[in-house]
Write a structure and sequence with these properties.
The chain is of the alpha/beta class. It is built from eleven helices and 19 strands. Composed of two chains; the small (or glutamine) chain promotes the hydrolysis of glutamine to ammonia, which is used by the large (or ammonia) chain to synthesize carbamoyl phosphate. Tetramer of heterodimers (alpha,beta)4.
């Protein structure tokens, strides 16, 4: 690595100077931080991070290299990386390349050798905001103009930019269960969790209509995670409402959770910082147990509006740090969702039971059972 310099400029004018990491260039996005100690490659390729500059709070990023087996989508989805130590040498035998080679191939611009603790403290206080990284342009006035022209995350629809272009299938066509996936930015490990539970999956583009989805003849319907503002996704809300009318078991994760809430009239809101990491404690109100969860979201479901609609929605999970809504189920419908990522990758597997819960509810329906 050369010692070429780089600059990070936040929308409020705060500036940090460091070294170039990855591709030499300029990139803009909403700055956010992730507290995970491992799993950087899975985080880079999570479509939910599309349009965001990621601050890694762990001191070393890249130290165990890059492996093709640890990607969650077809490419890197973060807009850029901010880290303390961009560690190019690696010794893991399973890795195929260094992080520098990977970022150059994927066209990712980053900055290292900055005080990530100071950056995290700053955006924790000031909230999420746009920022720009450049390792080629150090004219602050020009960077400010570029940054000022960038759209804010609030009101931004991004799922259509990361979703599959064409519907595709995965798994054994003779599996016992068929699941339709509305791809708002799904992760590969979500699909692997379905396949491991004897499910045949068809993944549909974000803007697929209910007629196209119904033609698959699915036994259950799933709404995936993804990037952007759920408040700007009326098209997905209309599809979710049509799905609810089918009265088939439904499950939503992260953005899918927010879309399901909107489908029954519960609005969402932009959080001050959001939750991103693999150590977030969640309390399951139905079992009385707590779970350590993997999370990545900057929007939430309105708790005030849920309190006004307890005849429609039941809260099933709450965040133990800030009491935000982490899970709901729709009363009178076989539909539920969670704000966090039970598929992990990276993260703990405390919440993997939710996939079993979904599959079991499908089996009950198929066998003529009644689900409360």
């Amino acid at each position: 690595m050369s010692d070429q310099r780089a600059i990070l400029l936040l929308a409020d004018g705060t500036t940090y100077h460091g070294k170039a990491a990855g591709k030499i260039g300029t990139t803009i996005g909403e700055i956010c931080f992730n507290t995970g100690m491992t799993g950087y490659q899975e985080i880079f390729t999570d479509p939910s991070y599309f349009g965001q500059l990621l601050v890694a709070t762990n001191a070393h990023i890249g130290n165990y290299g890059i492996s093709d087996s640890e990607i969650e989508s077809d490419s890197v989805k973060i807009a850029g990386l901010i880290c303390k130590n961009f560690t190019v040498p690696y010794s893991r035998q399973q890795a195929q390349s260094s992080i520098q080679e990977y970022f150059e191939k994927e066209g990712v611009v980053g900055i290292s050798d900055v005080d990530t603790r100071a950056i995290v403290r700053h955006i924790r206080d000031k909230g999420a905001m746009n920022a720009i990284i450049s390792s080629e342009n150090f004219d602050l006035e020009d960077l400010k103009q570029q940054l000022g022209a960038a759209p804010n995350m609030e009101g931004l629809e991004l799922s259509s930019r990361v979703t599959t272009k064409e519907a595709y299938t995965m798994g054994d066509p003779n599996a016992s269960i068929k699941i339709a996936v509305l791809d708002l930015g799904t992760k590969k490990n979500i699909l692997r969790n379905f396949l491991s539970r004897d499910c045949y999956v068809k993944v549909f583009p974000a803007r697929a209509g209910i007629e196209e989805i119904n033609a698959f003849g699915a036994d259950g319907l799933f709404i995936s995670n993804g990037p952007g503002d759920p408040g700007a996704m009326d098209y997905a809300v209309h599809t979710a409402q049509a799905m609810l009318a089918e009265d088939k078991p439904m499950f939503g994760i992260c953005l899918g959770h927010q879309i399901l809430a909107r489908a029954v009239g519960i609005p969402t809101y932009k959080m001050h910082n959001g939750h991103r990491g693999i150590n977030h404690p969640v309390f399951n109100l139905l079992t009385g147990k707590s779970e350590i969860t993997s999370q990545n979201h900057g929007f939430g479901v309105s708790p005030e509006e849920i309190e006004k609609n307890l005849d429609i929605v039941e809260v099933t999970h709450r965040n133990l740090n800030d009491d935000t809504i982490e899970g709901i189920r729709i009363l009178g419908k076989p539909a539920f969702s969670v704000q966090y990522h039970p598929e992990a990758s990276p993260g703990p597997h405390d919440a993997a039971y939710l996939f079993d819960q979904f599959v079991d509810s499908i089996k009950e329906r198929m066998n003529g059972g009644v689900r409360d």
